[in-house]
UniProtKB/TrEMBL annotation:
Functional summary from the UniProt entry: The TFIID basal transcription factor complex plays a major role in the initiation of RNA polymerase II (Pol II)-dependent transcription. TFIID recognizes and binds promoters via its subunit TBP, a TATA-box-binding protein, and promotes assembly of the pre-initiation complex (PIC). The TFIID complex consists of TBP and TBP-associated factors (TAFs), including TAF1, TAF2, TAF3, TAF4, TAF5, TAF6, TAF7, TAF8, TAF9, TAF10, TAF11, TAF12 and TAF13. TAF13, together with TAF11 and TBP, play key roles during promoter binding by the TFIID and TFIIA transcription factor complexes.
Organism: Delphinapterus leucas
Biased composition (Acidic residues): 25-38
Pfam families xref list: TFIID-18kDa (PF02269)
Name the record gives this protein: Transcription initiation factor TFIID subunit 13
Lineage: superkingdom: Eukaryota
Length: 146
């Protein structure tokens, strides 16, 4: 009989090499930990494992945009690396403008002003944040004010 891919459960890692090669011998394929060591741990470039901050939220977003309910861990990791890289770059740029060494909302707005989609989204989020602050204040005054 031919070699088959072992069932590893929906919540566990599905190594891409097994699917690409069509073999799943435990002797031939590394375990999840060995594979992570070979790859190098993402954005740290081989400095060990990095804690994944956005994995669960990214999985939900990917599912919402049409991916599988349990997307490949490699796909989630790549997206997370891109997100962290974007946030890091934007933070460094924001720290270099305005007040040195501080990130302010105005700095972020200034950096994305030429991207209409991002600018519109930030404007919407800032407006909603102000509305929520006003609603909380009104709620607190109604309950604790008089």
């Amino acid at each position: 009989m031919g070699k088959s891919i072992p069932y590893r459960g929906a919540s566990q890692q599905r190594p891409w090499r097994w699917l690409a090669a069509g073999v799943a011998d435990e002797e031939e394929n590394p375990t999840f930990e060995e594979e992570n060591e070979e790859i190098g741990g993402g954005a740290e470039g081989g400095q060990g494992k990095r804690k994944r901050l956005f994995s669960k939220a990214l999985q939900c977003m990917m599912y919402g945009f049409g991916d599988d309910h349990n997307p490949y861990t490699e796909s989630v990791d790549i997206l997370e690396d891109l997100i962290i890289e974007f946030i890091t770059e934007m933070t460094h740029k924001a720290m270099s403008i305005g007040r040195q060494g501080r990130v302010q909302v105005e700095d972020i707005v200034f950096l994305i002003r030429k991207d209409p989609r991002k600018f519109a989204r930030v404007k919407d989020l800032l407006t909603m944040n102000e509305e929520l602050k006003r609603a909380r204040k009104a709620f607190d005054e109604a309950n604790y004010g008089s």
